[in-house]
Amino acid sequence: MLLFVVGTGSRDCFITQKSCNDALWHAFTCSALATQDKFAQKEHFTSKGIPGAPYMKTDTVEELLAAGKKMGYPMMLKARGNSYDGKGNYVVKTAADADIAFKTLSATSDRGCYAEGWAEFTMELAVMVVRGVNDEV
Q1: With contact defined as beta carbons under 8 Å apart, do 55 and 113 qualify?
Q2: CA 5, 10, 13, 14 torsion-angle sign
Q3: All domains in the chain, ordered by first residue
Q4: Tens-digit pLDDT profile for residues 38-59
Q5: In the chain, count of helices (H) and strands (E)?
Q6: Which whole-number Å values give the CA distances from 132 to 3, 107, 129, 137, in the listed order?
Q7: What is the C-alpha to C-alpha distance for residues 20 and 17, in angstroms, rounded to an integer?
Q8: Cβ within 8 Å of residue 104, ≥6 positions away
Q9: Among 20-24, 85-89, 113-117, 125-129, where is mean pLDDT lowest?
């Protein structure tokens, strides 16, 4: 049996378990909530000193334009919710793109949006950590 934890949950956050074939799946409220809100993830990483691209909460087109003035263009507008694997991202190349970018992502995100400064990178890494029901990794 394997215990699957998304994020940084603890047994105090336990909400449900599901049996799937021979595996026992556990879900933790705090872990699930943290991974469902991309802005909350950025805030968490920043609070732990993990470096990343600059970012700003953008609840309005005006805030998105302010983010563009502060961080420059191009930048990424990202949906806080209902986003994964590139879904929920919009490249804002200039201030002229702000309105359509905001309308597009606001229509799909259940938590609003945030802007992130443009970051050059060569690859993206994803990590999954699992442990057994007896805490073996």
Answers
A1: no
A2: positive
A3: 2-34+125-132 (no CATH), 53-117 (3.30.1490.20)
A4: 888 888 888 888 888 999 999 9
A5: 4, 8
A6: 5, 39, 11, 6
A7: 10
A8: 90
A9: 20-24
